[in-house]
Amino acid sequence: MTGFRGATAVVGVGATNYLKRGTSELSSAQLVLQAILSACADAGADPRSIDGFVSYAGDSSEGLAIGAALGVREVRWSTQVWGGGGGGVAAAVNCAAAAVHSGQADCVAVYRGLSEKTDGRGAFNKGHMGHLYSAHGMLAPAQVCAMRTQRTLDVDGVPRSALEAVSLAGYHHAQHNPRAVAYGRPLDRERYQGSRVISEPLRLYDCSRENDGATAVLVVSADRASDYRGTPAYILSGAQGAAAGWTESAENEDHYTSAGFHPALVKRLWAGAGITAADVDVAQVYENFTGPAVASMIDHGLCPPGPAAGEFMTVEKLTVETGRLPINTAGGNIAEGFVHGIGLVAEAVRQIRGDSPNPVAGVDISLLVGGPMAPLVSSTVFGSPATV
Amino acid sequence: MTAGIPPDLIATVETHGKAVAAADNRTVLGDFMPDRIGQLIASADVPSVLKGSEVRNIAAVGDGLYDAIIRYTKPDDDSFELRSRWTRFADGTWRVVSVRNIPDTPPWTSLAGPSDDGLDTPHWDGLRVGKLMLQRCRDCAGWIWSPRPICPSCHSFRLGWEQVDPAGSVFSWTRTWQPFTPESTGHLPYVVVLVELDHAGGRRVMGILANADGVTPRIGAEVRGEIEQPPDDAYWPLVRWHLVGEP
């Protein structure tokens, strides 16, 4: 454990609604601003006091432009995490915490916003699947993750039912979340299995689908957390990175069926928080696609590898009413809505702060697992006030 | 050809063929499974004007599914075939769950050729002269793929390119059904294999598996690549992979 543990906290969460992609009347920047203003209202914070901005995945809303629109008094920190997709979502939180912990900024907004009218289609992927992919008809992350998942199933022996459980758990939780795109549209086994194939072995309900929307959280020093409204969600530890042989390499990654959370990274994550995988009470697990989500849970030691993953990954065990480890309690990317995973940050925080649509009783440790099978991956451990 | 085939399916397929030939889109779309109309429309390549249809075969393929092969004739008497897969929908009607042009042909995409940073240019130039070329360090002889600006093993700046025998084994694969580009229409579904090369330090390259209609590749299966020339200069040559021992 280091001085980083519990030194910073999230004190505000704000989000727009999830809209069907391409339908938002607001630009990406306006959506981001709406989310930040809402986070400030949640925290009781003066928007002009924000002095840092962090995003990831090629966000078109540059921090300085957002700061100028808010009329902030001063920008002291402005950073974007490299790497496409949602791999950097937790890294963005960690980066904000690092800035605050080191005294570079006092109140950092972490955000991601997307409006298809501003960003076009496939913003998750801009510049990341080059001609060595596209020439061969490999055009979408779904296909890459399908290819990796195929080997997870065939060689590692993870059963298909593990993928299904991720999707069904998200849809189950979304039925209690009026903000979720899948609210009022429950998913059962039959409909999941009967859905159209996107790229084998992934079917429609194995895949997240982009929405217009934005979410923001505010990170401040733990010492000042009491200046803000509500229960702070303390940042106990964070990890980001890519192992040797794990980076953009046209499918030449070592440990190909891993989600990229290599053992040293996971060890640092738990050591930093002073916990083990068994201490996690609730997890938001980024499911760009179900297969990679299962792989990331295996990487973190939350779920056993190989055939035994099927015994762990069941709807019963992953949902809030009956499960030891509920995941994606607002619906996740697949059933709540998808703006490159930023919604998972909000839900990880809300499990401690309150306002989760499916609160887990007595949460002390709330885990955020960022985008799996991306060139860069990241995770954050949030703790309740009792943990610090 | 129709022994054991439900008579109402035979009638539906017959009507469907005529509707496609007559460009009666309302009837055609009404035959599609409602949850995948967009996917089905973009799967098959069908000329806008046709003059006839002929149901060639209907066969049970298990799980209550049937494959229908319909031959369509163009105004110039040229013809082509589509194979559609049918299931009985909840409302009792027969619906198409998938459709494809047969025989299968690989897609060509315009998103090919050297990348903006130029690192892979020799690879593409190699394909133009019929060679699979990969990057290799001239100092430590390590194979480098995907290409890098320096050798990640020994940090040498002396990087070269060498021809590699296009032989290897299937490391993984996926069969894509979703039309992610209009250029895939008429070629869906197609199988992409990730091939671990036998003679390049285990480096892996992607490519379309040829003749993959109805074939489920086995991870570990032996494959051999052939460089296929594109239909015109708008495209780049590509290595297509063939299962060894298969046509």
Notes on the structure:
The complex is a heterodimer of chains A (388) and B (247). In chain A, 32% of the residues lie in helices and 18% in strands. Chain A is built from 14 helices and twelve strands. Chain A has helices spanning 28-43, 63-70, 89-101, 116-119, 131-134, 141-154, 160-174, 189-194, 263-273, 290-299, 309-312, 315-318, 332-335, 342-353; strands at 8-15, 19-20, 52-56, 77-81, 107-114, 197-199, 202-203, 211-221, 233-241, 282-285, 365-369, 377-383. In chain A, strands 1, 2, 3, 4, 5, 8, 9, 10, 11 and 12 form a ten-stranded mixed beta sheet that branches. Chain A has a two-stranded antiparallel ribbon with strand order 6-7. The radius of gyration of chain A is 19 Å and the shape is globular. In chain B, a hairpin with a 6-residue loop joins strand 9 and strand 10 (204-208). In chain B, strands 10-9-8-11-12 form a five-stranded antiparallel beta sheet, with no helix packed on it. In chain B, strands 1-2-3-4 form a four-stranded antiparallel beta sheet, with helices on one face. Chain B starts with 6 loop residues before the first helix and ends with a strand. Chain B is elongated and about 70 Å long.
Tags for this entry?
heterodimer; A: 388 residues; alpha+beta; Peroxisomal Thiolase, Chain A, domain 1; ten-stranded mixed β-sheet; two-stranded antiparallel ribbon; 14 helices; 12 strands; 32% helix; 18% strand; globular; B: 247 residues; Nuclear Transport Factor 2, Chain: A; OB fold (Dihydrolipoamide Acetyltransferase, E2P); five-stranded antiparallel β-sheet; four-stranded antiparallel β-sheet; 4 helices
